[in-house]
Design a protein that fits this description.
3-stranded antiparallel sheet, single chain, 14 helices, alpha/beta, 19% strand, 41% helix
Length: 372
């Protein structure tokens, strides 16, 4: 089956690269950050405003959409693109992580994962075949193979068994996908280089349109994550997109791009915005802090919410006003896309090391007291 995805690299700088993922619904500039639209919406944002922030693609969540409104209903309604009025590419996760972290009374077997809904207690089975069926019903442009979320920390023995099951499920995912959506395989193996190598060999033997690094950003810390990326990313095919799932903080993203990652997603900019944290070039700030109560400066002069002062945002967030969460989220998504644009430009002109070092020095140099 020929899938409707093409990846081209336009420039490299060290291990980092910038390029374009071409899909029938438009181009995705890489490195790319995908805002998370868990339940058919990027919380607090209209789709047009998500696009204006600079996002080329968003992420939808298989687990949440299968439970509400339901995959078959969503298909009858025309699919997620038409339903939420987003005409750009959508990537859907497989649902595996949420099933194992949110589902009550979860039972894993070779068939898949049986679980009870966190919404109403109804029972469900999610398998590689069912995950492909749901993601097809959603109408995803990029589909993720169903995998097992390896616990952290894990012994080599536990990580090996989990990785091997994920590879068996990866083949079943490939066999079950019946449309021409792009399918990404997920490299597993926890913190172990030999297991990551075995996983990569299995995935490339099956053949995927892109490859994700799974099992990171699970509590291991930035240093350990970078250590794993140092050996895990070069294993992956250079002619396919590389996606680091669930990452993350801006300085995590910069370090991962330096190691060859092309795609990212994380709930952090939206969740943090709803909780009063803004990301800035000088590091994250807590707008609830009393020192902002009479601060008439904007979060950033170029921010789409620059007409509102920190003092006003402080008041809105402290008062629990929904506009506060909306404006903070809009700013954070804009900032993340500014970081991605800066990375793309730096790679294209061969100046990534200087750009990344300057970014880190400024981002980490802020007074820690202002981050409380």
């Amino acid at each position: 089956m020929v899938t409707a995805l093409f990846f081209s690299v336009s420039a490299t700088d060290g291990l980092a690269r910038t390029g374009t993922i071409t899909t029938p619904r438009g181009e995705i500039r890489t490195p790319a950050f995908m805002p998370v639209g868990t339940a058919g919406t990027v919380k607090g944002m209209k789709p047009a405003d998500v696009r204006t922030s600079g996002a080329d693609i968003i992420l939808g969540n298989t687990y949440h959409l299968m439970l509400r409104p339901g995959a078959e209903r969503l298909a009858r309604l025309g699919g997620l693109h038409a339903w939420m009025k987003w005409d750009r590419p959508i990537l859907t996760d497989s649902g595996g992580y949420q099933v194992m972290s949110l589902g009550d009374l979860t039972t894993k077997s070779e068939e898949g994962v049986a679980f009870k809904s966190h919404l109403d207690g109804s029972r469900h089975m999610l398998s590689p075949e069912r995950s492909m069926e749901i993601q097809t019903a959603i109408g995803a442009d990029i589909v993720m193979a169903f995998d097992e979320c390896t616990p952290f920390p894990a012994t080599h023995e536990v990580a090996k068994a989990s990785m091997e099951r994920s590879m068996r499920w990866a083949r079943r995912s490939r066999d079950a996908l019946t449309n021409n959506a792009a399918l990404f395989g997920i490299q597993q193996g926890s913190m172990f280089e030999d297991l990551r190598a075995v996983s990569t060999a299995a995935l490339t033997d099956i053949g995927f349109d892109g490859y994700a690094v799974g099992g990171l950003a699970v509590g291991e810390g930035q240093g350990e994550m970078f250590r794993v990326l140092d050996f895990a990313v070069p294993m992956l095919p250079a002619d396919k997109p590389r996606y680091l799932m669930g990452v993350g903080k801006p300085d995590d993203i910069v370090g991962a791009v330096e190691r060859g990652i092309d795609m990212f997603d994380c709930v952090l900019p939206t969740r943090s915005g709803r909780n009063g944290q803004a990301f800035t070039w000088d590091g994250p700030i807590n707008i609830r802090n009393a020192k902002f109560a009479e601060d008439l400066t904007p979060l950033d002069p170029e921010s789409p919410v620059a007409e509102w002062s920190k003092a006003y945002l402080h008041h809105l967030v402290r008062s629990g006003e929904m506009l506060g969460a909306m404006l903070m989220t809009e700013h954070n998504l804009w900032f993340y896309q500014q970081v991605m644009a800066g990375l793309r430009d730096a790679i294209a002109r061969g100046g990534l090391t200087d750009w990344a070092n300057a970014f880190r020095a400024r981002y980490r140099g802020q007074d820690p007291a202002s981050r409380d």
